[in-house]
Amino acid sequence: MRHGKKFNHLGRKTAHRKAMLANMTCSLIEHKRINTTEAKAKALRKFVEPLLTKSKNDTTHNRRVVFSYLRDKYAVTELFKEISVKIADRPGGYLRIIKLGNRQGDNAPMAMVELVDYNEIYNPNGKKAKKTTRRGKKKADSAVDVAETETPETSEE
Predict the structure, then answer these.
(1) DSSP one-letter string for 87-137
(2) What is the pTM of this model?
(3) 8 A C-beta contact, residue 80 and residue 58
(4) CATH number for the domain including 44?
């Protein structure tokens, strides 16, 4: 029976589960985006978000607490130096889980986990690419315009 079990055990013993989540977190911090199964993605969100909240306040105690979870000093350094600066004004919701469909081999539902502030496509505050083409202009007219602009430049030289 599952009385009182508040989180997904992912079919692993405690030590294996903690090591797997720590490794996935280090990969997420390094690459800013990883692909995994949906169940692991949801478990990873519960594991990572408190660590990201701790990284906002850079104290020795918080570094040691995060290091006790991750056990990778390079990931801790990058988390406190780069990522915490980008997420400083965000009150929560640091990760985005995007469902990708099922895996080819075993039909497991897959998902992409990414840090929200590092994706320029979904970022509403990021730069938007402006369209350069306009409708209604014919190809013949544009060829004439190009020929007219090239002629004065060559005559001035």
Answers:
(1) TTT--S--EEEEEEEE-TTT--EEEEEEEGGG-TTT-TTS--PPP---TT-
(2) 0.76
(3) yes
(4) 3.90.1030.10
